[in-house]
Design goal:
This protein has about 300 residues and is an all-alpha fold. It has 14 helices and no strands. The chain has one domain. The chain is globular and about 55 Å long.
C-alpha cells in the first residue's frame, strides 16, 4: 500500500504518513475491541460464554462470506491463510477465557490485565528487526503501565477473583498470538477479507465443537432463565460483538502493514481504557484514583508512540 499517494497529500512525507496512519488504524482497533469486550462480557452474564462466542462469530462468518464473494477474495487464497486458520483456532480459547473472566468481573480489573498480551506481537516485531526510537520505547512502557493501572489491579481477594485473573492471563497470551498471526495472514485488502473469513470459520468450528462437548457433559447452551428467547432478543448485541471484533482484526492488520508492529500492537492494546469507560458510563462502575492515573498514562504513552 502506497501510504503517500493513497492516504496523504503534500507536505506530509512518507515516514510521517505511515506513522500517522498506523496510529489511527491502531487506535480504531482499540475502540472496536474495547466496545466488543464490553458487550461480550455483559452478554456472558446471562448467556453461556461459549454460546456468545459461537453465535457472535457465526454472524461474522455470514457477513464476511458475502464480502469475500462480492470482492472476489477467494482468488487471494494461498499459504498465508494457514496463519489465519491458526488464529481462528487460538481465538475461541482466548475469547472464552476472557468473557468468563469479564463475567466474574469487575470489568475494570479484568480488561486491563488482558492487554498484557501485547508482549507477543511486540516481541515478534523486535525479533523481525524493528527498533523503535527512544521516545517510542518510552511510550511502550508508559502505555502498558497505564493500561494495567487503568483497571486499578486487585490481585488479592476471593477465589473467584483469582480465577478471573488466571483466565485473563490465558486470554491475554491468546489475544497476543492472534494479533501476531493475523498480521501475517494477508498482504492485500481482498486477501485480508479472505483471511478474516477463514479465521472466523475456524472460530465457529472450534467454538461449536467445544459447545457440543460442554452440552454432552451436562453444560448449558442456553440461559437458565428465558432460554432461546433470551438469545434471540440478544441477537443485535451478539452481531455487534462479532462484527466489531472482525473489524478490529482488520484495522489492526492494516496498522501492522502500514507501520511498525511494535507501535501498532501497543496502540491497539489501549482497548481496556475503552472498556473501563464504557463500564463507568453504562454500568456506573466507580473509578478509583489509580484507574484515572492509568488512563492518563495510557494517553501519554499514545502521544509518545505517535510522535516518537
Amino acid at each position: 500500500m502506497d501510504c503517500t499517494t493513497v492516504w496523504c497529500t503534500p507536505p506530509f512525507n512518507t515516514l510521517y504518513c505511515e506513522a500517522l496512519m498506523t496510529a489511527l488504524f491502531a487506535l480504531a482497533t482499540s475502540l472496536l475491541w474495547g466496545l466488543a469486550d464490553f458487550g461480550g462480557g455483559l452478554l456472558t452474564r446471562r448467556t453461556p460464554a461459549l454460546t456468545v462466542v459461537v453465535v457472535s462469530q457465526s454472524v461474522a462468518v455470514v457477513v464476511l462470506g458475502a464480502v469475500v464473494v462480492a470482492t472476489g477474495g477467494f482468488a487471494e487464497a494461498g499459504p498465508r491463510l494457514w496463519y489465519a486458520a491458526a488464529a481462528g483456532v487460538v481465538g475461541p480459547v482466548a475469547m472464552l477465557s476472557f468473557y468468563k473472566a469479564l463475567a466474574l468481573g469487575p470489568m475494570g480489573v479484568v480488561s486491563p490485565l488482558g492487554s498484557l498480551g501485547v508482549a507477543v506481537p511486540v516481541g515478534v516485531g523486535l525479533l523481525l528487526g524493528e527498533r523503535p526510537g527512544l521516545l517510542q520505547f518510552a511510550g511502550i512502557g508508559v502505555a502498558v503501565a497505564g493500561v494495567v493501572l487503568a483497571g486499578g489491579p486487585e490481585l488479592r481477594g476471593a477465589p473467584v477473583q483469582r480465577q478471573a485473573i488466571w483466565l485473563t492471563l490465558v486470554a491475554a497470551f491468546g489475544f497476543g498470538a492472534v494479533m501476531a498471526l493475523i498480521a501475517e495472514a494477508s498482504t492485500s485488502v481482498t486477501g485480508l477479507f479472505l483471511a478474516l473469513f477463514v479465521q472466523r470459520v475456524a472460530n465457529v468450528a472450534v467454538g461449536g465443537a467445544a459447545l457440543w462437548v460442554s452440552v454432552r457433559r451436562g453444560g448449558r447452551a442456553l440461559p437458565a432463565e428465558g432460554g432461546l428467547a433470551v438469545v434471540a432478543a440478544s441477537l443485535p448485541a451478539l452481531a455487534f460483538v462479532g462484527l466489531a471484533d472482525v473489524a478490529a482484526n482488520g484495522t489492526y492488520a492494516t496498522a501492522a502493514q502500514l507501520g511498525p508492529v511494535t507501535m501498532a500492537a501497543v496502540l491497539a492494546n489501549l482497548y481496556p481504557v475503552v472498556t473501563v469507560l464504557a463500564a463507568l458510563v453504562l454500568l456506573r462502575e466507580r473509578v478509583r484514583a489509580v484507574q484515572a492515573a492509568g488512563a492518563g498514562l495510557a494517553l501519554m504513552g499514545t502521544v509518545l508512540l505517535a510522535t516518537g
